[in-house]
Amino acid sequence: MGLVQGGHFEKLCENVRKLDEELSEDAEQDAISIRFALDGLDVRNARAANKATLAKVFSMFNGYRLLDVHALVNGAPLVQRPLSVFLVPEEGNTPLNKLWDKMSDWTAVLSNAHENMKVFALRNQRITSDEPNIHLRHLEVLFRIGQISQTSKVLTNVQLAITHLSYICNTNSNSDGPRTRMSDRLPDFPNTLGQLNQLARNSPDQAKSLEYIRDLVAKYRLQGLKLPLEIALSISPLFLFLSLLLPDKRIDPGDLLAESFKIGMKPELLLQVEMKTWKFFFSVLRGETQLLSGLLDLFKTLPWTEIKAADDSVRSWFSSQPQMTSQLQPTASLLDKDPAQAEEDIARQGPHNADQEPPKGKDTDSKDVRRRENDCAPESEESTNSGQKRKRSPKDEGDEEEGEKKEQDSKEGDESNGERRSDEDAERETKKNGDRNEATSSQGENDDDAKERARKERKERKEKERKEKERKEKERREKEKETKGEVKESQGGDGEDAGQLEAITSILDAVQAFYINGKPRYINDPDDSAFRVKSLKQSKHLKPYDLLEIFRRQHLIIPGKAALMRPVYFDLEDLACIAPLDSRISVHDHSIPVQDDNYKARLKTGTLRDVYESAKSKRKILNALNFPQNMAPIKRDYLRTDAAALELTRGQDRDWKPTDKFAIGDFYWDIVGTRGAWHPIHIDADGLATLIAVSCGVKIWIVARPRGRLSDYSDFASPNLFLEGFEFTKACREKWELEAMVLMPGDWFAMRPNTPHAVYTAENAICRGHHFFGIINYARHALRDDPLLFARHSSNQCFSSCLAIHDSTYFESLLARVHLVWRYIPLLGVENQEEDETAIKDIIIVCILAMLLNVLDFRTYRWPGLGDDEELTDKMKEMMRLYDANGIPPYDRAGCTMARTKTIQLLVFLEKKYEVYDEEQEEILLSEFFVEYLFSICRGLRNYRKLADEAEFDGGGKVSLELLDQQLERMFTPGDKLQERWIASRDDGPEGFDFPTGYSFEVRGEEIDISGLLRDEGKINEGDQLWQAFVDGNINMPGTVLFFGLRFN
């Protein structure tokens, strides 16, 4: 950051420079550490703060943003999650606390700068540096407001976005040479980026404009709408991320804009809002528009009418619930408050009160503000429309009438500013009002009469839609109550069910029976235990490879790793941080006896408040397991291949659409249970590993594995394991080896994929957990147990990201460049041959899974839109057979296609690098080994499905042997000799999921050069040739493909 002549802002710039000089010798690494600390903060631990504290946090927030810019200029990676302005740091010596110490005086520094600004302006001095000029305008807006409010945060974020953009543009403003034409969505973007920072004169008095903006902020927040300014800021990470490339590459501004269309699945309306807002940003940077007056004009011209009229899927982007970035899919839509109610609230509170800090002691006190603005899961339709509708009165109708008139005026204002409806909307409106327009023309009504009639018709239409919506909601609730029932009304006795208590006692006795010398196995025989316990200090000193090797065969427990900044209690305040207390949720009532194995009878509807009251009274035992946390941070650790993949591959040229989105709600969740809650032995499906962090209470985690070779999980490789009389509700000591671990607050527990386990809640507990992918576990677990349960949620997209890591590493040499990724990658060609063979097995398993993505996906066997209880018709079956019609959306199919492409690349890579020897030490082609292993797994799938059909296990919806055979055949090109070979051998030959034994892999004496291989885009027939060449052992075939000889649809 450059200095300002005259020294008025020298201290401000000096503080940022000191971050580079004083934190440590390696300032860039310190910046990364600080940002990681900020990224890892749990917003549930934010403390209720007064105005003085908020002022300090606010100054830290701005300091962090400037640090972010500073780090970006030096090439540091981005933080994936924005910092909340309500976070309050604790005492200590963490990087975050060090940053706080250096930022704590920023309020005074900025205030002094504001005072000096007046003198500076009177002297009419020019600033020679463009960047501090941006800060001048930043400081003026920030300190003219004079209070911490919603308005100040919005305006400050606008300024910060402009500041970020100026740095990005200045980074490349001195480049010479011609540029291609900018996209027409920003037609007035300057040819010279340096022109963006022209000096602009400050407006003398804009208090009236500020007042109007403050009123708008209050109005639209009360209506449950997110301000389009906040929406547009979601595109900011895109520009910031691409700025990392600017020092090294010549990126045209048009390319920056084109990249924005690749982020997420944005509706057109959102794109319009983003483009309008960013155009405003650029005009401010060029000095063509004053900030507040331009902001006022922007508010007036945004398409409010279209936003209000949009359907739920589009409106969810504009709801007040925040989202991480625009790279995420929209979460469940909030039902907006009745406009008449919003107007009444504004009238009652006053527009200024609506924007101020809420008074203490009321429903909107600081803890509720913290809950709403930070880590709470979005309310669902089920929870927000609980029947508490107020009765309509004449006053309501009058307010609604007035609101309709305002809406019409706003619509006319939009039209006068160039906001015309699309041709499709206009045609639809013309069709609806055709009769009225004809009558108006014939009777000669004036324009006012026509507008009045249109207003009444619109009002009647909305009233009709409202009543229809209420009717459907009422029917849904009645049906739900009939099927589930209210937890308050559930019968069956109080306290623990006697049968359940007997089952728990039996399993805990079995755990104790497997003790060694009276102590758990993980104490007396840790190498042969299912658990491996490492202290927090030990885990920090373990090498990444050692930690990964532990997780290959043992569950990992690190006490204290999940310790929180403050204690969490099983009370209403902390429960409200998980979800709204009165939202309708699914609750398991364990007080109800199970009859005829009908566990569904325990599933009821209730609220978190019901769970809390049951914990107090001890009358019922309730377990609530479905609290998706859509705003949870994607944290880094050594085990998480998917997080590394997401970070590495997002936004890169090699990436494809499905990997851009990450299903936070599916992978991150909270669970709440009262004392005595018991979840019998089960498996978390989809091939996912599980992380559990206990926030409060006590959990007893019991894991099971087949008896016999305790150091080996090879029994799980049998596709028939769970078809041979295993009992999931009893101890079954003859076949199960059981171990248990008591998890206390702060304990961090990583459970390997597909582990049979049971959970008992010993004390009222709140836990945070998430599922994740770890390539390190694929070779031993991803294909075992019930393989057809592997792919659901967004598993395919996440797995494809993991696959992209291998492609990036081996073909683009990112291993040496990206220091945060190497620990996730199986290293090839290392000195230890055993480690090298383990890495090869991991890659081959990944390739197998990529080939089977369609086969292992439930949606492959479902008709689009068909419910689980509905049967396939003969016509549907015929369509599925002939045209492979199923429930997999097109973008997922494209992801599977790309995954298989990368599979061929990786297999050819291994073929060129390694020699493969069979049990008799004769060299064979890798393709021969791979195909036989693939066939063995496919035979295992068929045999499992055949036996499951005989046992009447549905295996996930409509899966049948006939449909499975169709999908297995579709992996190969019709008529190809490989397909014929599969059909001829599918009923004979070895079957199973375990990696074949007796094979060895050795590095070739002279490695074949693969540079340039598989890099150019090709055609389908070339793909057929490549796959056939691989199968035939012809690995020297040049060229590359995007498609190949396997069926990908």
Describe this protein's structure.
With 1049 residues, this protein is an alpha+beta fold. It folds into four domains: 10-174 and 200-376, no CATH class; 421-483, no CATH class; 489-779, Cupin (Jelly Rolls), CATH 2.60.120.650; 826-1032, no CATH class. The chain is built from 39 helices and 14 strands. The strands form two sheets. Strands 1, 2, 3, 4, 5, 6, 7, 8, 9, 10 and 11 form an eleven-stranded mixed β-sheet that branches. It has a three-stranded antiparallel β-sheet with strand order 13-12-14. A hairpin with a 5-residue loop joins β12 and β13. α7 crosses α12 (268-285), α16 crosses α19 and α32 crosses α33. The longest helix is centred in the middle third of the chain and has 37 residues, at 447-483. The chain is globular, with a radius of gyration of 31 Å. This is JmjC domain-containing protein. Residues 354-375, 403-438, 450-491 have a biased composition (Basic and acidic residues). Residues 348-498 are annotated as: Disordered.
Summarize, please.
Helix 7 (150-171) packs parallel to helix 10 and helix 32 (795-812) packs across helix 33. This protein has 39 helices and 14 strands.
Question: Averaging pLDDT over every residue, what do you get?
Answer: 58
Poorly predicted regions are 1-28, 30-210, 224-266, 320-445, 647-665, 778-798, 807-825, 1010-1026, 1035-1049
**Strand count:** 14
Characterize the biggest β-sheet.
11 strands, mixed
Determine the strand fraction and express it as a percent band. Answer: 5-15%
Structural class: alpha+beta
Rg, Cα atoms, Å: 31 Å
Shape: globular
Number of helices: 39
